[in-house]
Amino acid sequence: MTQAAIEIDQLCKTYAGGKRALDGVSFDVPRGTIFGLLGPNGAGKSTLINILAGLVNKTGGRASIWGFDIDQHPRNAKASIGIVNQEIVFDPFFTPKETLEIQAGLYGIAKRDFDAIALLRAVHLEDKAEAYSRTLSGGMKRRLMVAKAMVHSPPIIVLDEPTAGVDVELRQQLWAYVKSLNARGVTVVLTTHYLEEAEELCDRIAIINHGQLIANKPTRELVGMAQEKVVEVTVDRDVVTPPENGCFQKIDVKAGRTLVITYRKDQANAGEVLGAVQGAGLGIVDVSTREADLEDVFLNLTRSTG
Fold it and tell me: What is the pTM of this model?
């Protein structure tokens, strides 16, 4: 059996009318990782996830889940993955407990072998077990969808924008649960627009734009691709005309005495930047820096392929 949790090989999808949502995408999701799948709206992320879920038919390439080809072994492939879609879909007249028990029945899990309350407890919904699902808040409904995806204990779970519209406290609870799942060996695939979450949580990140894969690297390596760095230098007098220097990529004056200087790490270092400020006859009172983050890399990559 393959060591990858998910294998995507030259995956293509062209919709009726000619829209090409996926154009030869290839990547592997290593087992036991939290894997980020990022991209702008319309990049092809949801199409890829729906192909894995069996909701959309691909037009080319191949995909396997936990070693099972989605065409040759569709039932085994679907049994190996739980998917939480962006859309919150539920029956408003069932309770959360009933919702999970019905889902378990669809997977052939005997009632005596399934503990709905334990699963609801894991997503902080135990006290809502007997309430009608329509009475749950948006965040609670989303957590119910996570529980529903985990009913059959799949080795892989895909979370498509799981924290959209969720408040900070509930988001933290959800990520704590995701981390606990991953600690137990579950492979997690995450799409999100909160790039700071992806940077904090994901071991590896792939970025899709216009249906094509434009990056697939360990998170630290991806963040390291950002070459721009910003240093704010507070000087000892008001600055009317900011100094110029070849090591500055950009310089602005903020609040009269603070110089906001952008430079490229591959062309200069902080010492050279500060030396240039002093060389212009300005005394340095305070210095702060901002390291590049995933957002910088994401914007640079998607702009260059736009």
Answer: 0.79
61, 67, 94: which is closest to 81 by C-alpha?
67
Phi, psi of 149, rounded to the nearest 5 degrees: -70, -20
Q: Report yes or no: 173 and 147 within 8 Å, Cβ to Cβ.
A: no
Pick the CATH number of 4-222 from 2.40.128.110, 3.40.50.720, 3.40.50.1000, 3.40.50.300: 3.40.50.300
Tokens 């990547």 map to which residue? Answer: 27
Largest CA distance in the chain: 79
CA distance 81 to 98: 21
17's CB contacts (< 8 A; 6+ apart) are none
Q: Are strands 156-160 and 81-84 parallel, antiparallel or unpaired?
A: parallel
Partners of 43 in beta bridges = none
Q: Return the CA Rg of the chain.
A: 24
The identity of residue 288, as a single letter, is S
* pLDDT band at residue 1 under the 50/70/90 scheme: very low
The answer to whether the CB of 66 falls within 8 A of the CB of 107 is no
What is residue 57's DSSP assignment? -
- Tokens 């005309």 belong to 241
Helix (H, G, I), strand (E, B) or coil at 51: helix
For residues 64 and 25, give the distance between their C-alpha atoms in angstroms, rounded to a whole number: 13
Position 249 pLDDT exceeds 80: yes
